[in-house]
């Protein structure tokens, strides 16, 4: 109620109401600021001991997907999303015109929307956030990437799969299924950012075991074009190779 009261008095002051004693109405705001100061002081003391813990999920569901409040917030405030437009612009040079693309781990689907607005490719957004299809009015299809994925309305593979800022949230024991889903739905290539594996060469080996080969030149160009540092650090481009050239995927894990 204190916050509601504060908002009301701020509105009231903005209307120059009760201007004989405006200082009185600033007291509610002062109390909120003092409470916030006390809260952050407590967090400063307690958070350093809690943050290293990995026995629970920080803002994520069990299989790594975000809470639906994240998508609701980004739907209400789309400008809050960190969208790597440098990467997107480079993708238009990488992807052949008319390609189909699945954006796995799309949250509210802004990457797919941007690509679709260009008319160069046809992108489809997927995410595991509970209720994401309803929250986004159907722009994003709900799938759990940590379980075997079958898309009934698109049973065939897409030309390309885009997967950014997802792999690092997948539990290690479910990473095999996650990567299998990416490989199953990528007919020509895969653009992947990060895995739970900290070493880039090991991440590369696991992806290539699914029947891909990293395109070193395209990877370097894409990283150079990125505007978001943590995406630039590990995003990579993989192209599909003949099945007989790939290592058996089961041996990669």
Sequence-ordered SSE layout with sheet pairings:
Elements: H1 2-14, H2 22-50, H3 68-76, H4 85-94, E1 100-104, H5 110-118, E2 122-127, H6 132-135, E3 140-142, E4 158-163, H7 175-184, E5 186-193, H8 200-208, E6 212-214, H9 216-225, H10 229-232, E7 235-240
Written overview of the protein:
This is Class I SAM-dependent methyltransferase. It holds the Pfam family Methyltransf_23. The protein is α/β, with parallel strands linked by helices and 253 residues long. The protein folds into two domains: 2-50; 68-252, Vaccinia Virus protein VP39 (Rossmann fold, 3-Layer(aba) Sandwich), CATH 3.40.50. It contains ten helices and seven strands. It has helices spanning 2-14, 22-50, 68-76, 85-94, 110-118, 132-135, 175-184, 200-208, 216-225, 229-232, and strands at residues 100-104, 122-127, 140-142, 158-163, 186-193, 212-214, 235-240. Strands 3-2-1-4-5-7-6 form a seven-stranded mixed beta sheet, with helices on both faces. Helix 7 (175-184) links the parallel strand 4 and strand 5. Helix 1 crosses helix 2 and helix 4 (85-94) runs antiparallel to helix 9 (216-225). The radius of gyration is 23 Å and the shape is elongated. The chain starts with a helix and ends in a 13-residue tail after the last strand. The relative contact order is 0.11.
Characteristics of this structure?
253 residues, alpha/beta, Rossmann fold, 42% helix, disordered C terminus, SAM-dependent_MTases_sf, Class I SAM-dependent methyltransferase
Q: Give the CATH architecture of the largest domain.
A: 3-Layer(aba) Sandwich
Record field, number of beta strands: 7
Over all CA atoms, what is the radius of gyration? 23 Å
- Quaternary assembly: single chain
Shape: elongated
Spatially, the strands of the biggest sheet line up as: 3-2-1-4-5-7-6
Q: What's the overall average pLDDT, rounded?
A: 83
Low-confidence stretches: 55-59, 244-253
N to C succession of SSEs: HHHHEHEHEEHEHEHHE
Protein name: Class I SAM-dependent methyltransferase
Organism: Symbiodinium microadriaticum
Pfam families: Methyltransf_23
InterPro entries: SAM-dependent_MTases_sf
């Amino acid at each position: 109620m204190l916050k509601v009261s504060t908002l009301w008095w701020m509105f009231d002051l903005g209307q120059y109401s009760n201007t004989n004693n405006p200082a009185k109405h600033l007291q509610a705001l002062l109390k909120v600021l003092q409470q916030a100061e006390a809260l952050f002081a407590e967090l400063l003391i307690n958070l350093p001991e809690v943050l290293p813990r990995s026995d629970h999920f920080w803002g994520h569901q069990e299989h790594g997907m975000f809470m639906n409040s994240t998508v609701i917030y980004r739907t209400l405030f789309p400008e809050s999303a960190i969208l790597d437009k440098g990467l997107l612009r480079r993708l238009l040079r990488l992807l052949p015109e008319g390609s189909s693309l699945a954006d796995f781990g799309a949250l509210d689907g802004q990457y797919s929307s941007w690509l679709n607005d260009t008319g160069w490719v046809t992108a489809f957004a997927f995410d595991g956030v509970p209720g994401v299809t309803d929250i986004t009015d159907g722009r994003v299809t709900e799938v759990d990437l940590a379980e075997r994925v079958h898309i009934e309305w698109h049973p065939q593979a897409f030309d390309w799969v885009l997967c950014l800022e997802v792999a690092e949230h997948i539990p290690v024991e479910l990473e095999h299924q996650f990567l299998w889903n990416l490989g199953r739905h990528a007919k020509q290539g895969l653009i992947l950012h990060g895995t739970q594996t900290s070493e880039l060469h090991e991440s590369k080996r696991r992806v290539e075991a699914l029947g891909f080969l990293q395109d070193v030149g395209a990877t370097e160009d894409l990283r150079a074009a990125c505007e978001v540092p943590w995406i630039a650090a590990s995003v990579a481009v993989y192209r599909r190779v003949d099945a007989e050239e790939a290592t058996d995927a089961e041996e990669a894990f």
